Amino acid sequence: MKDSINELQKIWQEEQIKYQNQNKTKITQLMTTAQSRKKSSVRFQYGNVATLGFVLLAIVYFFSFYLSMREVLSQLGLTLMYGGLLFRIGIEIYSLGYARNIDMGESSLVNTESTLTYLEFRKRIHGSFTLIIVGLYTLGFYMLVPEFAMYMDTLWVILIAVSYLPAAIIPVWQIRKAIRKEVKELEELVRIREMMTKVADSH
Amino acid sequence: MVNDKQADFERLYKQYQPMVMQVCTGFVKGKTALASDLCQEVFIHIWNAMATFEARSTIKTWIYRITVNTCLQYVRKQGRNPEVPMQGKEHQIPNEPVNDHQASQILYVCMGKLPEIDRLLMMMVLNGLGYQEISDIIGISHANVRVKVHRIKHKLKKLIRYERQHQ
User: Fold this and answer.
1) Which of A23, A74, B76, B118 could pair with A147 as two cysteines, CB 3.0-4.6 Å apart?
2) CA A117 to chain centre
């Protein structure tokens, strides 16, 4: 086998013709997949915002019409809970806009840089931002407990206060899993960027 | 409007599918099933990005960018795999004379031993793309492309010689 670049180019370009016969995917099927993939991606992205919005509305409704809180401490607690959720919804919407700006048709370096910025932002959301939001929400929730104690039996109050903890652990665990995945992706991207930008040593 | 988009997409697919499939096959070291999935992913990205194509570059450069970015996205999501040499049976091209098959087989095996970016750069060179075009696709300077390509060519030649001696 010859190893001159011209020979290799000839072999490579002759090979390309053979891929025309290997084309088994139907174009219409591909277009349908692309369209349905886009729809499900949009549904998934907005699904998060919709779920958070629904939770916020349910809480507002519950504490406005079903169990209105009168104490100042409880009002402060509710403000922290609403504020935390609203902040989270805002971040999710901002994040959607961020992701949409990543253009696959840009050069690889620009695409890598934009993805890196996006993943670093997601890491921050899943890290410090979420901890602050969960912290504020938890603090807000426990600020309601003294007023609960005014209307409920102590046993029920203890049950409500304790049952909040396992409910908080599940999202924290999921967040940690997401962070680990994103950190791995970030490390890979940094490696790819270094490989791209490093000026090669000449021989 | 939708029919125009479909017609454009069909034309792009017919014209560039072999090129994209070859790059994907070379990138995943000849694993044809994986290359098909990757190729499909590239065309899904093309379909979704067609409305944003602004003709600042040629359509071929744009498709190449999407192909390279999809390959790199695959690496990012899968994590770094150890550089395992490609097994002969993974790259199967039907109806080829034995010598041609051997020559292309060696080329694919050796390409598979290059790091990801070098592999992509080398495939562009083998496809006949110029330094300026490669520079537009990757986004690094013309001079850097030239130096890198020079080094990769040297490395590939050494790998091919080694592979031939050990066959």
Assistant:
1) A74
2) 14
Of A1, A191, A202, the CB nearest to B147: A202
User: How far does A13 lie from chain B, in Å, by closest CA?
Assistant: 6
Amino acid of residue A29: Q
A125 close to B156: Cβ distance less than 8 angstroms: no
Residues in B closer than 8 angstroms to A36, CB to CB, are none
ipTM field: 0.84
Q: Is A76 helix (H, G, I), strand (E, B) or coil?
A: helix
Q: Read off the pLDDT of residues A90-141 as tens digits, 9 standing for 90 and up.
A: 988 988 888 888 889 999 999 999 999 988 888 888 788 888 888 899 999 9
Give the chain A residue whose CA is nearest to the CA of B108.
A12
At residue B138's C-alpha, the angle toward residues B135 and B141, to 5°, is 40
Contact B43 A34 (CB under 8 A): yes
Amino acid code (one letter) for A181: K
Q: Does the beta carbon of B61 lie under 8 angstroms from any beta carbon of chain A? A: no
Q: Do A30 and B156 touch (CB under 8 A)?
A: no
Spatial distance between the Cα atoms of A4 and B8, rounded to a whole number of angstroms: 38
CB-based contact, B21 to chain A, within 8 Å: yes
The first and second tokens of residue B93, run together, are: 């091209």
Q: If you ran DSSP here, which 8-state letter would residue B89 be given?
A: G
Residues in chain A, total? 203
The residues near A100 (Cβ < 8 Å, ≥ 6 apart) are none
Residue B78 · residue B115 · CB < 8 Å: no
